[in-house]
Specification:
With about 250 residues, the protein is an alpha/beta fold. It has 2 domains: about 130 residues, Alpha-Beta Complex (Quinone Oxidoreductase, Chain A, domain 1), CATH 3.90.180.10; about 110 residues, Rossmann fold (3-Layer(aba) Sandwich). Helices cover about 20% and strands about 30% of the residues. It has 7 helices and 12 strands. The strands form 3 sheets. The chain has a 5-stranded antiparallel β-sheet. A 5-stranded parallel β-sheet has the order 10-9-8-11-12. Helix 4 packs across helix 5. It starts with a strand and ends in a 9-residue tail after the last strand.
Length: about 250
């Protein structure tokens, strides 16, 4: 099978399209034929080993995992004998987590991995873009931010992979959502449910006088010190890029 492979850390040019051995599923795994996958900001960080600390997880001198990609959609081609949740022909969307491996024609995943049946009204391309942004935003808002109904939440970088899901998730929790994005994305972010949108090319949300229970910077462009005055007492600042979460 073909896969996008990198043997060294570096710029995009280190990626090569290569023939690699097609995986064989174990008894508790499914073999998935990949129809669509993505290249996320997380993949770029792993590929370049920036920050350097990424090497602690993915290999100090060279990549431990040669195939990037943490999300995909596709079709179950084969199921191991112990698999009960999925069968051949099932259309699925999946997240691979730090094991990566999605940027290939085939991948084997354990039955208990982040695999769900693809909604019928989603294309493979749409489905493949769900796991990274949606699950990351859910983790930070729900598990780190302890989001709850009635709160005021600000999403910075609201038009990106994490931000678009963060806006929708925050609304689903029953919060009042403010969002920050560029001019060209204001209408998109409004359509996702944001109650108020700050165009960062025209205004600085920290000077609006508004305060929030949660500020979630999905793109790492702010800092706790800059946002502190916009947080309510006991408010929480979340930043998955720097992982400097305070509250």
């Amino acid at each position: 099978m073909k896969a996008s492979v990198h043997k060294t850390y570096g710029p995009p040019e280190v990626m090569e399209l290569r023939e690699v051995k097609k995986p064989v599923p174990k008894d508790d795994e499914v073999l998935i034929k990949v129809h669509a996958t993505t290249a996320t900001s997380g993949d770029c960080k792993v590929r370049s080993a920036k920050p350097f600390a990424a090497r602690l997880f993915f290999g100090l001198k060279k990549p431990r995992i040669g195939i990037l990609g943490s999300e995909l959609s596709g079709e179950v081609e084969e199921a191991g004998k112990d698999v009960t949740l999925f069968k051949k022909g099932d259309l699925v969307l999946c997240g691979t987590g730090i094991e990566l491996g999605a940027n290939a024609e085939y991948i084997c995943l354990k039955e208990g991995a982040a695999i769900v049946i693809k909604p019928l009204n989603m294309t493979f391309e749409e489905a493949a873009s769900v796991p990274f942004g949606a699950t990351t935003s859910l983790f930070f808002l729900r598990d780190k931010g302890h989001i709850r109904k009635g709160q005021k939440v600000l999403i910075y970088g609201a038009s990106g992979a994490l931000g678009t899901y963060a806006v929708q998730l925050a609304k689903s929790f029953g919060t009042e959502v403010a969002a920050v994005c560029s001019t060209k994305n204001v209408e998109l972010v409004k359509s996702l449910g944001a109650d108020h949108v700050f165009d960062y090319t025209k205004e600085d949300f920290t000077k609006s006088g508004e305060t929030y229970d949660i500020i979630f910077d999905t793109v790492g462009k702010t800092s706790f010190s800059k946002c502190k005055s916009s947080l309510k007492e006991n408010g929480i600042y979340l930043n998955p890029v720097t992982e400097k979460n305070k509250g």
